[in-house]
Amino acid sequence: xxxxxxxxxxxxxxxxxxxxxxxxxxxxxxxxxxxxxxxxxxxxxxxxxxxxxxxxxxxxxxxxxxxxxxxxxxxxxxxxxxxxxxxxxxxxxxxxxxxxxxxxxxxxxxxxxxxxxxxxxxxxxxx
Length: 127
Hints:
alpha+beta; 22% strand
């Protein structure tokens, strides 16, 4: 892992951020899986889906040298659903997670995961 995290900022998404850039990052970060035949929605979703997912929870961006290079969205109850585990009132989940392939292996994905794990621990989720 490259420890060069200079000029890297992890911050909450806001509605003035470039949704097209975020969609592009998701497409690019999942491209290798798509080439193997996996059909994750992030491989082909449009900007309107990206925006909707960004609005579904606490969405964070990794910004490096003023460019969006990564994204992740944390969903906490009651915005978590889909299976019996997710339907529990004490379970959070994350999705829409990707790092631009040009910036993978720099520790950015790990920082995004640590950010949402910390946020989930600090949310008032009953257990």
